[in-house]
């Protein structure tokens, strides 16, 4: 607690003493700055600088507008070039896919023809074998059921 009290007292004394001497320095610095600003030579240079800036603003604005226009043209050209490159790549890809599809279709047709030829060969080999005559009467047909019909004892719960 004593340390805090000593700190506050020292701060207060330093503020009072410092502000008195600091105020004098501040006032002299302020008066010197005002005298320099109000000097006719300084004011004439400020006026010249202001007039120059006012005369150069339109020129700078035109240069900025030209630069912006060039940048827009460059971006447009680059975008157009990029779009053309993408279009070319897409056409190349489509042609490749079309070629691959045609090759796949041709291969499938060849395989189908091979299967058809093998089936015809097998059919011609098997045509020499005699098939049995179909049954024409009930006696010749096996009419026995695969499973016997359920009887009364099978029906009980």
Automatic annotation (TrEMBL):
Compositionally biased intervals (Polar residues): 103-112
Domain of life: Bacteria
Position of the signal peptide: none
Region of interest: Disordered: 89-157
Composition skew (Basic and acidic residues), residue ranges: 89-101, 113-128
Residues annotated as transmembrane: none
Protein name from the UniProt record: YtxH domain-containing protein
């Amino acid at each position: 607690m004593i340390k805090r009290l000593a700190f506050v007292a020292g701060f207060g004394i330093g503020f009072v003493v410092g502000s008195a001497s600091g105020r004098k320095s501040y006032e002299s610095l302020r008066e010197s700055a005002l005298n320099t600003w109000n000097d006719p030579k300084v004011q004439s240079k400020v006026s010249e600088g202001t007039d120059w800036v006012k005369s150069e603003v339109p020129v700078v604005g035109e240069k900025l507008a030209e630069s912006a226009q060039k940048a827009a043209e460059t971006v447009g050209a680059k975008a157009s070039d990029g779009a053309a490159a993408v279009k070319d790549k897409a056409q190349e890809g489509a042609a490749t896919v079309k070629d691959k599809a045609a090759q796949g279709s041709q291969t499938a047709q060849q395989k189908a023809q091979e299967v058809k030829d093998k089936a015809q060969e097998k059919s011609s080999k098997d045509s020499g074998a005699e098939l049995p005559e179909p049954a024409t009467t009930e006696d010749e047909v096996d009419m026995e059921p695969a499973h016997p019909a359920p009887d009364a004892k099978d029906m009980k719960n």
